From TrEMBL:
Organism superkingdom: Bacteria
Record-level Gene Ontology MF annotations: carbohydrate derivative binding; DNA binding; DNA-binding transcription factor activity
Protein name: MurR/RpiR family transcriptional regulator
Location of the SIS domain: 109-252
Record domain HTH rpiR-type: where: 1-77
Organism: Vagococcus allomyrinae
Keywords tagged on the record: DNA-binding, Transcription, Transcription regulation
Amino acid sequence: MSLEHLIIEHKPILNQNDLDTLLLIDHHLGECADLTIVELGQKVHMSKSYLLKLSQKLGFSGYSEFRYYLKQLQARKVVVPMTMSAQELLMSDVQVTNDLLAQLNFEPMVDAIRQANHVFCYGTGVSQQSIVRQLSKNLMSVGKIVVTLPTHTEFMTNISLMSQDDLLIIASLSGETAEIIDELRLLKMRQVDLLAITQFKSNTIASIANYNLFFQTTPYQIVNSESVIYSFVTLDLAVDSLLRHYIDHFNHSERTKESEA
């Protein structure tokens, strides 16, 4: 999604200062995409706290995510050389995903999983479902009550069973799966927490979610064909990182109990 479309989507909560600042950033995207929050503040004559709040108004958890979004916008303006291999694209996606994970505070997500009475897991496609199913099995191995929803029908059936003491983990490539958007908004109204795992871009599911885990994947075009290939290696990497943070927390808690016994 372009910055212009992002502004239109969130315009009801943006004031004139916000619009002027975002317009300036859009006009100087090449310069702004690589700036720290302090450097960008100096360029647009705004404070760090203002830029943080502006990032959050646009649906990002903080400036780091907004900065990566700007970098992705800038990258799309650069033509990828035809000599760039599929393997090189994969390594680039892995690096971007690793950078996102390194800057993410996993503690709120880990706490949400720990405190949930039931964890519901759903993937919007075959690959997403396979990765989410493995996450479910691993969470059950450390004592969590997990309900895997293998089909859209089961997702719809179980919505009425979810309460504000539960957590829904959903994996989606686009974050724009139309047939579940209304249901997710309903769950949010009922105060059911949502952890969304989506491609790194502004998207509807991420904007609804309480917690966001992003991954980067670049489609690889097949020559003389309309087909493109998406790799889900980085989705697997993001989910595995979430699991490892939870297991680290679980192990720490168990060792603490043993030492206090």
